[in-house]
């Protein structure tokens, strides 16, 4: 799938003006040409972005969901080109050389895995192994797998729901992460048998994460909604907000056990209880993978040994 930045700008201009004709005038192109560009963008994406009404055009449901990603993508590209095209002499040259130093150890970690991965990495990464410095990036698992497969990262730590998905890289399994239910410690969900949880939810909203991470995987989401007959949702995009809602008994959610490590020692977690779900939901697999060249290095072997010899993190919350 290839999406041009020009098409994204066209899309955002139509959103802003709520009219294809006004957007065409603003962009200094003809209306038929703009309509053709948007139609091609929709064909590339696989869904319709706009629907027409008497006021002009409005976003479809999927178009509305796509909008923030389009804004972020375009802004990221504009930020990058602005920085790299600046003429700041030696200062700019130094900045780009530091960022793009090929000898720097480039590590990508799914943000939800940071509490698990970083302490174990620090035990291996000594002054000798980081002589040229580190570059650590946090991105969703799907992004990391793409980056390491193209050697844009030396090493990546990521989730997989199905290990067979990772055909473009040689993923090394670290451990299987079980799914857990998080709710307020006073809620009846905590003490009910898993098969009867749907009877005690009492319209308590389920927290759905609106980001391209593990818990938004369609397979898991469908299994959860079917299992608990969920009809009410809160939508958030970060763990702290989710835990805050749960701590006030306003919602519950289901995550991987490792995710709970983020705020397990935070005061917000003091009123949250954890209920393991065992085999009621698919397990999540935490893997690591190195680029083709990095897999041959001694540091890769050391990191692999440290990660595979580490016990699965205990989840003692609640």
Give a short summary of the structure:
By secondary structure, the protein is α/β, with parallel strands linked by helices.
Task: Provide an overview of this structure.
With 318 residues, the protein is α/β, with parallel strands linked by helices. The chain has 3 domains: 5-82, Winged helix-like DNA-binding domain superfamily/Winged helix DNA-binding domain (Arc Repressor Mutant, subunit A); 101-176 and 284-309, D-Maltodextrin-Binding Protein, domain 2; 179-276, Periplasmic binding protein-like II (D-Maltodextrin-Binding Protein, domain 2), CATH 3.40.190. 38% of the residues lie in helices and 19% in strands. The protein has 10 helices and 12 strands. It has helices at residues 5-17, 20-27, 31-45, 61-85, 90-99, 114-124, 141-149, 218-228, 239-247, 298-308; strands at 50-53, 56-59, 105-109, 134-138, 155-160, 172-177, 179-184, 206-209, 233-236, 253-256, 272-276, 284-290. Strands 4-3-5-12-6 form a 5-stranded mixed β-sheet, sandwiched between helices. Strand 8 (206-209), helix 8 (218-228) and strand 9 (233-236) form a beta-alpha-beta unit. Helix 1 packs across helix 3, helix 1 crosses helix 4 (61-85) and helix 2 crosses helix 3. The chain is flat, with a radius of gyration of 23 Å. The model has no long low-confidence stretch (mean pLDDT 82). Belongs to the LysR transcriptional regulatory family. Pfam families: HTH_1 (PF00126), LysR_substrate (PF03466). This is HTH lysR-type domain-containing protein.
